[in-house]
């Protein structure tokens, strides 16, 4: 009789132990599943945070073209039919899709330029000191940034010049420094000229104007691009 009771007690103890083991395994499995479900999004987020910048570096800008006969780094700014024949300069914003390591912002202004259709031949001086003649009807492009302190110049129809409102620098429509009434012109150099490329479009003689836009250091005599 005593032996039977001992056997029954042993069976009950073994059964209870098995139930506890199964309960522990179930709870552990549930906990592990919860950890996996919680950590998964975190890992995915970290993966995107670390590797997304490398992917976004390849995002194209439809305003910055490198296709066909237009080199990369040139921005579509205007068309030739938007410029008056009398050579009055017109101001245009340069628009581009901007992106850095983690952000993509479409259609943002990155600067501005003055464009004009030359009413006659124009002799200009290049950075190396040599001369070049731009022919009548060609497109001339100037940075709107004053080389003195970085303010933005504006066209003044009364004086037919480009004026800086900050320190009274004045420039001819050709971009050359201008001295009026014996006043000193504080700008260390003429306005910075930018290269342009014309691309035909299906509208008669109208053409797209692409500008090789870049910024230059101010306050120095040399025309050094900002890297």
Can you offer a commentary on this structure?
With 227 residues, the chain is of the alpha+beta class. It folds into two domains: 1-58; 64-212, Rieske [2Fe-2S] iron-sulphur domain (Rieske Iron-sulfur Protein), CATH 2.102.10. Helices cover 24% and strands 29% of the residues. It has one helix and 13 strands; from the N terminus they run αβββββββββββββ. A four-stranded antiparallel β-sheet has the order 1-2-13-12, with no helix packed on it. Strands 8-9-10-11 form a four-stranded antiparallel β-sheet, with no helix packed on it. Mean pLDDT is 79; it is low at 53-63.
Reading off the top of the CATH hierarchy, the class of the largest domain is best stated as Mainly Beta
Distance between the termini: 98 Å
CATH superfamily of the largest domain: Rieske [2Fe-2S] iron-sulphur domain
Mean pLDDT: 79
Number of structural units classed as domains: 2
Q: How many β strands by DSSP?
A: 13
Share in β-strands: 25-35%
For the largest beta-sheet, the strand count, sense and barrel status come to: 4 strands, antiparallel
User: Number of DSSP helices?
Assistant: 1
Low-confidence stretches: 53-63
Strand order of the largest sheet: 1-2-13-12
Which fold name fills CATH's third level, the topology of the largest domain? Rieske Iron-sulfur Protein
Overall body shape: elongated
Features:
single chain; Rieske Iron-sulfur Protein; 4-stranded antiparallel beta sheet; 1 helix; 13 strands; 24% helix; 29% strand
